[in-house]
Amino acid sequence: xxxxxxxxxxxxxxxxxxxxxxxxxxxxxxxxxxxxxxxxxxxxxxxxxxxxxxxxxxxxxxxxxxxxxxxxxxxxxxxxxxxxxxxxxxxxxxxxxxxxxxxxxxxxxxxxxxxxxxxxxxxxxxxxxxxxxxxxxxxxxxxxxxxxxxxxxxxxxxxxxxxxxxxxxxxxxxxxxxxxxxxxxxxxxxxxxxxxxxxxxxxxxxxxxxxxxxxxxxxxxxxxxxxxxxxxxxxxxxxxxxxxxxxxxxxxxxxxxxxxxxxxxxxxxxxxxxxxxxxxxxxxxxxxxxxxxxxxxxxxxxxxxxxxxxxx
Length: 312
What we know:
By secondary structure, the protein is an alpha/beta fold.
């Protein structure tokens, strides 16, 4: 019995993944499952470059606008959601196309998840800063409330382990004391993943990023962030590049020129794209496709269709 195929389109931000996924979905009879950790948030549209109704081209997209930005979202929750979406798409006789640049989400589907999540650099720095500003007892008290057994096992003086325990809880939503076996990979679950990585010229990609940031401000990023600022945004929502920088500028009452904020966002986004590239280059089983700057979407789409013909 032939295993059902799940197609993945991955790569750095602004590489054209979303448009390519839509084009492939039209040709293959597919539906899209987002693998972007920021697109899950309702009302965070401009700063996340969330595809508009027109850009979706009539193709159903799963994984957009799942929760308000006041709520946290974890890779564990994403995996459960995405697996259900894949099953439902296949039941409808369509091909699931997972498209996005959140490497941890892609890996969670392809390889499964360890019982404890990996480290999260930004979150860890935030917890370390909190320990410095509020003192380790404050962090221990927080852990004691969230997971008494783990807190008591660690004790109140081991900063590294207290921070790690809080990190696990904030990423996964699960108590560190409640471990479980590793979840199965897509292949273990009976699927056949085909993973396509989009490779672009780096300088050209960085120019696209700069243009995208300029477009975000024209489309109303400041207005969007002002609206969101009326709520207490979750820590995971604030990880969206551009939101924290714009929020800081608003709260400073424009102390610095807006152009300076734009340049900072561009630089941060370029660094983010570089990290995405590094992540995906280390992953196994990705079939890389070079997309020249001069090429339109159609020859790339046709090349990928030929590549995956045997798999489908």
